[in-house]
Amino acid sequence: MKDIFRDIEREYEELRRENNRILEFRTSKIYSEIPQIKEIDEFIKNIGFIAAKEQILNPSEDARERANAEIIALRGKKESLLKNAGYSRDYLDEIYSCNKCKDTGKLPNGKRCSCMENKLARELYNISNLSYTLKRENFNTFDLGVFSKEKYNDEDLSPRENMEMILKISRDFIKTFNDENDRNLLFYGPTGQGKTFMLNCIAKELLDENVNVVYQTAFTLCEVMEEQKFRRTEISNLKYSQLFSSDLLIVDDLGIEMTNSFTASGIFNIINKRLLGGKKTLISTNLSPKELSSTYTDRVFSRVFQKFIPIKFYGNDLRLKTNS
Ligand SMILES: [Zn+2]
């Protein structure tokens, strides 16, 4: 437990050091290119120093305001010198990878910053293992060509047309992810239809945007819940709370084995609380909506799943195709 936080703290330290190095490099470059800026910086330092001394000996609101106004004017001059030389005005400002917490992981109100939550989720849920999968399975490697253009059973759309539609819905989901809407997706259909692949595409895209994503199979989700119930530790507490607090929870492969009442009600409790908190969830399952509603009781099912857009995957098993 301690190790996780210590590792993350080290990461922040390294980040701050790296950003400082960049700033030092920029400063020495600018000082030699535009010596006037070096003079201004020394001036600013001096004014600050003298004003601080003055405040101790002879505190005066006027003197402090005068010093501040002088510093602001000098900073303005420095910024226009930078701009005239083709640099951005903030080129010599402190650099932060996360402006919200200034690379400390903590917000001014003492709460954990979202970048800290991301790091925690990554450590707790082994997102680094996931990232290996995401390198292979993402929108860039997604190939519409593997889906048949032939009509399939009684479906109106061919598997390829259907997949084009799913692709569009998935991209819309990403585009509107930060909007307040009830857009949760339920991917259903037999195995080998690309459901998990599509979940991976979405996860990759949102992780790249620094969204806090927790990706679990229904099976490992049950393990987290059991751990929390029977062997509660600080880690299991954290993992469990992330199921509720993450920006996006992905539950892959919700199936028939999850039907004992403890796990079923546990999963629904999580999804329901997320819905109430305006947090989004993606689910994939091999069960049809009909099987789902008979597996889970109708009442629970309809309340939760009316907030999900059901999306059907169908066609020939793609895994057989790639093996042949
Ligand atoms: Zn932050």
UniProtKB/TrEMBL annotation:
InterPro entries: IstB_ATP-bd, P-loop_NTPase. Residues 180-302 form the IstB-like ATP-binding domain. It holds the Pfam family IstB_IS21. NCBIfam families: PRK06835.1 (NF005304). This is DNA replication protein DnaC. The lineage of its organism: Bacteria, Bacillati, Bacillota, Tissierellia, Tissierellales.
